[in-house]
Amino acid sequence: MGYLVGIDIGTSGTKTVLFDVNGNTIASSTVEYDMFQPEIGWAEQDPEDWWRATCQSLNNVIKKSGIKPEDIKGVGLSGQMHGAVLLDKEGNVLRSAIIWCDQRSSDECDEITDIIGYDRLIEIAANPALTGFTAPKVMWVKKHQPEIFEKIAHILLPKDYIRYKLTGEFATEVSDASGTLFLNVRERKWSKEIVEKLGLNMEWLPVVYESQVISGKVCKKAAELTGLKEGTPVVGGGGDQAAGAVGNGIVKKGLVSSTIGTSGVVFAYTDKVTIDPEGRVHTFCHAIPDTWHVMGVTQGAGLSLKWFRDNFGFEEKTLGMLTDTDPYVYMDKEAEQAEPGCGGLIYLPYLMGERTPHLDPYAKGVFFGLTAKHRRHEVIRSILEGVVFSLRDCLEIIKGMGIPVEEVRASGGGGKSKLWRQIQADVFRTSIVTINSAEGPALGVAILAGVGTGIYANVSEACDAIIKRVNVQYPDEKVSGVYEKNYKLYTQLYPALKNLYRS
């Protein structure tokens, strides 16, 4: 039997999953690493940490499964989007990668908009200049670290640095490239106009492929370090959201995913370029040829709960260690004790600024309505609810763009929580569906690897064969009424605080 590998280079760790050709998980391994914040609003990671985690997790799954490396027919890569990995002409990393949630480049966004023009940016890149994207990060290095900028020979995204280490090839694919601000999203190729007007070099950018196309093969050195067989094909793969959408079966009209990872994303398929003129949601290439997607992003989704766990969750972490149970399971049980609406306590999840719908790097997290009556379990539940309110902001914009929403599928770490899924059903006032695999991006890029190596005819056929609906949670109208009241108040809080955030 043949096997496929999906590697997802995430913000908190790299997850490698081995699948059989029917999409069944054979073995999985996650290796964590740190995110560094040298200043408030900054976020960096060491690309070598990603590579070490990739090598370790690959060795782990091959050892766990006991399969022969030659039975692995293809590898797919997924990863956190928008990061700036800068290499010199020898392929050495020049500085820590500035990653997706970094907010330092607000001035550079204004500069890019002035140089290219707002309307022209939307016309070419389908999105305004945002601090999350790659281009403003490179421009920040150009302005603040000219000694590093002058040595740049290659600009890569996180997963594409791993591709380089695996294959020796400088390559990317359309879904991840869409989030750089360098890509012509309609034409699915680099924009020479944007790159050259910003004073950058087209030669710094990797070859861009469609997502299922083989972009390279595992080289001898990588084979020795990872346990893979030399020559194993590596396909383009996808940015984590497009890859996760494939892994959730979001490959046709009417299907939408709601993903709660470190960030939160509402993702909708579209067969044409559909743009929000206000730039509140992103329009990117999908990981399927001649299709696109629209997604709204909240920066601090699972990050908000992780922040609480890391700073105030000593008891849950200790109990989890003693019982070999995820601490989030205990936090879920606590949150279940609180009434929906948390007695008027409302959380704004803007720990790392916010994208949809506010596009504001200065936004900050807020607990509003806190009283002496509130207890720990209500604070935890208010975090879950506040994140979902932010996701509803995304969903409302997508609906307003005329994109049909017939079914919402939950995914990501937050999608494993029955409570968090029910809160989504009640806040969105729509049923929430789960599928037979929770592997999301890793499964998605394994499917793309299967298409690229000829195991499947195309992505849609593969998804129809592999992905099945297994559970549906329906909204409770009474609870939805409580949330409707709190959501209306939630939407009034950011405008009231907007001018205070900068000061």
UniProtKB/TrEMBL annotation:
Pfam family name, one: FGGY_C
Superkingdom assignment: Bacteria
A Gene Ontology BP annotation from the UniProt entry: D-xylose metabolic process
Domain Carbohydrate kinase FGGY C-terminal residue range list: 258-451
Keyword annotations from UniProtKB, A to Z: ATP-binding, Carbohydrate metabolism, Kinase, Nucleotide-binding, Transferase, Xylose metabolism
Catalytic residues of the enzyme: D240 (proton acceptor)
EC nos: 2.7.1.17
Matching CDD domains: ASKHA_NBD_FGGY_EcXK-like
UniProt GO MF annotations: ATP binding; D-xylulokinase activity
Keyword flag Ribonucleoprotein: no
Annotated substrate binding sites: M81, H82
Residues flagged as site, Important for activity: D8
Catalytic activity of the protein: D-xylulose + ATP = D-xylulose 5-phosphate + ADP + H(+)
Keyword hit for Transferase: yes
Functional summary from the UniProt entry: Catalyzes the phosphorylation of D-xylulose to D-xylulose 5-phosphate.
Family as reported in the entry's similarity comment: Belongs to the FGGY kinase family.
Protein name in the entry: Xylulose kinase
Organism encoding this protein: Caldanaerobius fijiensis DSM 17918
